[in-house]
Amino acid sequence: MIVLAHVLEGPGTPREPGGGFRFVGRAAESERLLTAARRPPAVVFVEGEAGAGKSRLVHEAAADLRGDGILVLTGFCHPLREPLPYGPVVDALEKAIPSLPADGLPPLAPPLARLLPGLADRATLPPGDPADPLAERGPLLQAVRSFLDALGPAVLIVEDAHWIDDATRDLLLQLARTLPERLCLVLTYRAEDLPSDTPVLGAAHRRQPGTASEMVRLGRLDEESVAALAEAALGDRATPALVEALYRRSEGLPLVVEEDLITLADHPVDREGPDDTARLRAADVPRSLREAFTERLATLSPAAEQVVAAAAALAVPSAEAVLRAVGDLDEEQAYTGLVEALRASLLREAADDRYGFRHVLAQQVAYTRLPGPLRRRLHTRAVRVLEAHTPPPLVQLAHHAKALGDRPVWLRRTEEAADQAVLVGDVGTAAVLLRRILRQPDSDVGMRSRAALHLAPIAGQGADFDENAAALRAILDDDRLPPATRGEIRTGLGLLLTNQSFDEEGYAELSRALTEIGAPSLAAVPALVALAVDESVDAGRAERWMAQAEEAVRDVPDGPLAADVRATRLTLRAMVCDPGVWNALEELPRRGVELGVLRQTARAVYNVAENAIDAGHDRRSRALMEEALELGRSTGFPAVELYARMSLYRLDALAGRWDGLDERFAALHAEYPDTPVVGAERALFLGTRDLARGSPGRALEHFARASAETSSRLTGSVGARAVTGSAEGLLAQGDASGAWTRAHEAIVGLHGARSRSRAAGLLPVAVAAALACGERHAAEHLVAQEEHAALGLVAPAVTADLHTARGLLAEETDAERAAAEHHDAHLLWRDIGRLRPAARSAELRARALRRTRPEEASSALAAALGAYAALDATADLARARRLGHELGTHRPSSPGRRGYGKELSPREREVAELLAHRATNQDIAAALVLSPRTVEHHVANVLKKLGTTRKTVATALGNRPAED
């Protein structure tokens, strides 16, 4: 018998017949992987269907890289994973300990000692709860980075990442964003086995500056590559007819080709019987792998067959001793049987002296071939063997109980495994296990209640939002639930819905939950504080809810619930611009406390920072938002991380850092497509940019989208900004009446709102619209109301808006006062750090002074023009230039009308710039105050001189120098 050993070779190395498989058909993919690995930092995604050869590709690459002196570490994900945060990374790093520098651990690496027993003699454990390895995710990420950096040039490979747990996925996502300089991260996975619409890292990976990112997709082999494999394995037996049969049966899938070749190599040529081609063609194509594998199984000795059967029942790579016990073999039988199975390429050594199948498809074939009584006996032995382990592998025990049909034991083991997962912080595994219990409608109501109560508080921490929400909704339909239990579960569902999308249904569920829970208690606290920050309720009702929550946690002042209440109280203080909130925020713990408390600190920092933007404390907000981002990452709080990133983009938009901002918003939206507020923020930015660049029609579409994508509960920042933008767009289109109606209705609706700063920006637009409609009295009344509401409010943005509104009112009657008000607004906006509002205030000051003090007006206008030019705000520039013409600052340098020939005139360049930003003729007419007919004339001249069409004006304009 010829045994085909799987010897790993370099790409394209010729082999003697029967010596092993050549590595063929992957030259381009191998080159891309090796190039990225040799030029770190880099992240490489290797995607391919089952049997496509992902493991072979990275194994071949690893051999080449080791030859270059690069350390290669590999960790594996498994479908029956036990609750162990960061398991695949821990496995890989454990193997690297001998490669660490002899002079000790890197400075930041000690937190790894809790997860890596091999570091015990090298590190002093940092203080903290040893039972909670997730309590300090930030230090852990730093420790992993420090550890990997100390290894020198290295490649970290994580295989079968479609089975990755949430904790490892989050860690690798953060690592990918801040890779050590000499590290390449490689992930292999099957896209078809990922959760629906979920990228392999749980969020779309965005290449970081200075870090390479490579996607290597493995397709199927072509017939030429199949021929090369066959020739290397079979020599002269690989006839063209045989190659054609191999290719047809396998459809180019490498695993199937290899299995067929192994089977053929195991059969010597029979001169009188059917040849190789006839044997292959006699089998049905869909059963190729099954038949090839089954035929090899039939040649095994009894001992080897028992080893393979035990491996099939265990379903995960297992130690030789476990295979021996489950197979009921003595030591010598187990040894010879295992060696035979390895030589026959039925099993392979996975890692750490554990043995399993080459592929999950092979395990399935071997398992389904087992007779029922034998399967039952194998699972029974597996239970006995695994129960003796310390600690017992609970997920595997649940798997075997289910295979035995022992439903009560399966449910009990699954519950125990979920409890263990929650204990060690592996919320992804916990959620999967808990949902399995909840999918059993006829199971014990007590167990289903416990499962739902465990799932409710962790449902929002993983990537499976829809599945968790569906599971909680399903259990709420069970009329056997006690009311208080139903209320706690409903609270979890309500929080999941509100945190994900500010859903109206979420607040309704929270209100129902309070009724079901009954008297205020610790169980009611999460619902109470969530409802208290709902801006659609009045301050008195919110304060009653907060008082009940504070009373409920009085006896547990140091736990997560009390921290939740404190964070909410700070949020409410920030909403009313309480200046004492800054010092109170500094008193919250940042380290040395349990994870739940730290997450509430993260929430408080984010909420205060977000309210600070509305109030106009942009610099302070940015510092807090960056802290919130880091806290969100280090504590595993994805909602805080998402919203902090989004708000930092918002701050960039306000500061005028517009270059590349749409792309960043789009990438964030792609990462979190089910979070509407991300799309709303992006739409608000695009609407503002389109207004500045002369496309009010398109801007109105963006503002409408922002309103549509968010709940009406977002009556504050998003809602008010969408209305402000819409009113400004209508004014730009000459629809003052529509602008006034919309702005007035919004301001009236905000009367009595707890956060007056949420309406920042709306008042000046409303006043401008009212004056344009001849509603001066109404405008004066609005300003008086807002002045009264803003008394004592420490909110620079609100104060700047009031200055602008008073300046607009004074322009017709008192130009000096109007100029002073606009100047004060300009100084405030400049100090806050918002470029466009500061420029607009300077422009308004110039407009107020244009008749009385033209020189000062020209100076103010110059500042506005510079800012508008920096923003490429073509419509704002055109408007300011018209004022400059009135002031005499933009007159031609010589008398008479200049002939421009093929060059663009100044007016034509303005038109071209607006066209470059996709402005319509109507938009251009409004921006430049021209008639439609005149615009048509200018557009025709621009297109003719540039030799282009409307769609490519931006490109053509960018290739021409600006005319003087």
| Integer-rounded radius of gyration | 34 Å
Mean pLDDT: 82
Q: Provide the structure class.
A: mainly alpha
Strand arrangement, major sheet: 2-3-4-1-5
Supply the number of helical segments: 45
Q: Spans with pLDDT under 50 lasting ≥5 residues?
A: 1-19, 126-136, 891-897
Sheet with the most strands? 5 strands, parallel
Instruction: State which percent range the strand residues make up.
Output: under 5%
- Number of E-type strands: 8
Share of helix, binned: 55-70%
Overall body shape: globular
Distance between the termini: 87 Å
Structure explained in plain terms:
The chain is mostly helical and 964 residues long. Helix content is 61%, strand content 5%. α12 crosses α15 and α15 packs antiparallel against α16.
Summarize the structure.
The chain has 964 residues and is mainly alpha-helical.
Quickly list its features.
964 residues, mainly alpha, three-stranded antiparallel beta sheet, globular, disordered N terminus
Topology diagram in text:
Blueprint: H1 27-38, E1 42-48, H2 54-67, E2 71-76, H3 87-96, H4 137-150, E3 154-159, H5 166-177, E4 183-189, E5 212-218, H6 223-234, H7 240-250, H8 254-265, H9 276-282, H10 288-297, H11 302-314, E6 318-319, H12 320-327, H13 331-343, E7 347-351, E8 354-357, H14 360-369, H15 372-387, H16 394-403, H17 407-424, H18 427-438, H19 445-458, H20 465-476, H21 483-501, H22 504-517, H23 525-532, H24 539-552, H25 560-575, H26 581-586, H27 595-615, H28 618-634, H29 638-655, H30 661-671, H31 676-692, H32 696-708, H33 717-732, H34 736-750, H35 762-772, H36 776-789, H37 796-810, H38 815-832, H39 835-849, H40 854-871, H41 874-887, H42 906-916, H43 921-928, H44 932-946, H45 953-958
